[in-house]
Amino acid sequence: MGKEKDLVERSLVVLKPDTVQRGIVGEIITRFERVGLKIVGMKMVMPDEDQYRAHYEDIGQMITRRGEQAFRYNLSYMMTGPVIAMCLEGVEAVPLVRKIVGPTEPKSAEMGTIRGDYSHMSFGYSDAKGMGVPNLVHASGSKEEAKREIALWFKPEELYDYSDLNEKFTR
């Protein structure tokens, strides 16, 4: 039982301002629920620059990898409205969520993924326009990243352990 328990993971998902403003939150959440992922935490928030810096640089190393300008474009985009932060739980949740979401650049995302079905912008276009890429969703990149991100976005008392009927068929 110990080894199978280790495969049950939690992942952070952030539904970005374009998801909220386009009114497709329910459609996106449904995709995660349909595969048997369980929502163990969820809230609408309007983070400040400090939280985004902690998320994108302290954890995600965005400035280190892509430069301050890329971070500024992304920050400007993320500050356009509230986001919905979710903690999802399931068997190998981190790679499963990434598979459902698709690659970071919407133009490269396959149809059937969230980004492939709901967005199409390229990095080149967003860079030329001096803006962040509206790519709908953030998803943790690894188990370690997920743990750090979840701790940044949720207090322990905002996360819930409970059983749902899907677990009979998905665990």
Structure description:
Helices cover 49% and strands 16% of the residues. The longest helix has 11 residues, at 49-59. The chain is built from eleven helices and four strands; from the N terminus they run αβααβαααβαααβαα. The chain is globular and about 50 Å long. The protein has a four-stranded antiparallel β-sheet. α4 (49-59) packs antiparallel against α10 (143-153). The chain is α+β, with helices and mostly antiparallel strands and 171 residues long. It starts with a helix and ends with a helix.
Shape: globular
Q: Count of helices? A: 11
Distance between the termini: 11 Å
Number of strands: 4
Rounded to an integer, what's the Rg over CA atoms?
16 Å
The main sheet orders its strands as 2-3-1-4
What low-confidence regions span 5 or more consecutive residues with pLDDT below 50?
Answer: none
Going by helix content, strand content and strand pairing, the class is alpha+beta
Order of helices and strands: HEHHEHHHEHHHEHH
Mean pLDDT: 93
Strand content bin? 15-25%
Largest sheet: 4 strands, antiparallel
The helical percent reads 40-55%
